Structures are given as structure tokens and as C-alpha cells.
């Protein structure tokens, strides 16, 4: 008897949350993070400022925007390299794993910098970002094991490569590099770790 109204309220709350995040996404991209106010988000979403704040402050909304995109990417099928998986080098295969996330952050570098700032300041604990990190570590470990590294060495090397990836992201955010340059840096890092096809 009470299940239907409770379910309906839960669905309404989730629909409102989703609408607020979608509007925040659109306004952040159109106006920039700093120029967008909670009042603007509320007006565009057709809700009160209090309802927006119940979903989250601007930093929380920005994190939700990125985390929604990351979650969609994580549920997508794994990327393919341009060469066949057997013929591609280990650096190419690992670059293919990381490329979609670099492209996500490249879409709007200003917002990506703001998102990185939210994560660095520690004002938002990101379950999705942590899950992504674990998933990427696992995918990198698999590719390193395919290259012939022992399980222990592949696990250790994957952490080095993952931290190199984070370093490339932060350095890249600071200097506005492009995706091919970031991928080249990552391939070089993988080459050094695996001693496979180093460019220099």
C-alpha cells in the first residue's frame, strides 16, 4: 500500500537530482564554472536554490557531472587499438585503455582543471574516481602481463604507469597540451617501465 508513493517519491527525487546535474553541466560548459551560480542552475532546472543545494554545492555538482561521464565510459565496451590487439605494442595497448579518459578531460580543459581542483582540495570523496583508478590499474596490469611481465612485476609496474598517467593529466591541465601529446608522454612512460620500443 505504501510502496507505490514511496517509490514515486524516490523516483521524483532522482529525476530532480538528474535534472539539476544536467542543467549544471550545460551551464558550466556554456558560462564556465566560476560564472555559473546556484541561482542560475535553480532557475534553469525549475527548482529552488535550496533544492539545488540539497543535491550539492557547485563543486559537488561539477564532480557529479564528471562522474556521470566516467561511469558511462566505464560501462562501455573496452576500447580497441587501431592495430590488431596482438600486433599492437604494450605502450599502444595501454594508451588505448587511457585514451577515452584523456579525451573526456580534453573536451573542456577549464572544467577539467576545476574538477581536478575539487579532487585535490579533498572537498569531495569520489567513489567513481576511486573505482576508475582501480579499474585502470587492473586493465594496465592485464596488458603488462600480456607483454610477459610476471604477475608481481606487472602489478608494481601498473602502479608506476597509473601515477605517470595522473602526472600527465595534471601537467597537461596546466599547459593545455593536446591528446596526442599526452598519449605520446604516456607511451614513453610505458616504454621506460617495460623497456619496450622506447622513443628516446
Automatic annotation (TrEMBL):
Keywords: DNA-binding, Transcription, Transcription regulation. Coiled coil: none annotated. The keyword DNA-binding applies. InterPro entries: Homeodomain-like_sf, HTH-type_TetR-like_transc_reg, HTH_TetR. This is TetR family transcriptional regulator. It comes from Paramicrobacterium agarici. It comes from the Bacteria. Pfam families: TetR_N. Residues 14-73 form the HTH tetR-type domain. The keyword Oxidoreductase does not apply. GO terms for molecular function: DNA-binding transcription factor activity; transcription cis-regulatory region binding.
